[in-house]
From TrEMBL:
The keyword Transferase applies. The keyword Cell wall biogenesis/degradation does not apply. The modification N6-(pyridoxal phosphate)lysine is found at residue 229. It comes from Streptomyces lichenis. This is Aromatic amino acid aminotransferase. It catalyses: an aromatic L-alpha-amino acid + 2-oxoglutarate = an aromatic oxo-acid + L-glutamate. Residues 39-354 form the Aminotransferase class I/classII large domain.
Amino acid sequence: MSETSGTSGTGPRLRAVLDGIPTYKPGRPAAAGGPVAYKLSSNENPYPPLPGVMERALAAAAAFNRYPDMGCGELVAELAERFGVPASHVATGTGSVGVAQQLVQATAGPGDEVIYAWRSFEAYPIITQVSGATSVQVPLTEGDVHDLDAMAKAITDRTRLIFVCNPNNPTGTVVRRAELERFLDRVPSDVLVVLDEAYKEFIRDPEVPDGCAIYRDRPNVAVLRTFSKAYGLAGLRVGFAIAHEPVAAALRKTAVPFGVSQVAQDAAVASLRAEDELLGRVGSLVCERTRVHEGLAGQGWTVPESQANFVWLRLGERTADFAAACERAGVVVRPFPGEGVRVTIGETEGNDIFLRTAEAFRKERY
């Protein structure tokens, strides 16, 4: 191309809205061959795939020269039966975060607002800004819980979507039934409320509602779930939403064609059919969560009661030092600089190393 043709060599013109989008930070892996032996930085399930899942996934892999079922027909039917909802109310995507992005795309654009608590799931500001919408971040209470009154007061005529992460990532705290229903009663019917329940299976508090029960008589409520956490399929990227037909139909329109692989679909179906084994594994992780929480409390830490598969330590300016101490000891945790660390409940040995490190750190620094 000659110097006089076209425009100056500045490259393609990209959307200005992309400037300043925060980068999603995955949990750091355990260093291969290094001192770190346990990865507690991502909310993964430490157990291998459930019985029958690997066999089903390997069988599907034999045909990956073919496109997957774009409608995820078998998986949708299985989910509809499992949750007692019409198949037309189920929509799938690449993990619950993929479905969350589809929901934002379907509801919000430039000039619109998306409300969520902060700190909460760090993908929310990213997917909001990508759509061109404006984030409205409502601080958590001093107890690291959603401030639903403040979130209701933040609603304006530009609000299009509200995320309620329950349990909340990274604090593990929950919104209970009565307060959630009061909040929903205050939300205009044309504003979509998304109950992000990625950690639903780990909840033991009987006052925390099942979003699938809440959504049934509220057309402006959608529920997000995932196979990445309790079901142990984080590497396959499959999640789903349960929502009334207009919202579910919008999700199908905004989905990436063939986004959920056949391996992921078949593994998810097999996982649903191994629920007894799943519940046993989740029960073991909940027991380990209780042990870790009690251990931290016994050391003198103030730790929010977690209903997820992780615990949260608010460390402020000591966050980076604590994360470094954990890494030296042999575990990697997820630091949020200047705020705190999230620590996944993993293998017993890794949890023990974390507890010993927390005890030593507290004696040295407090």
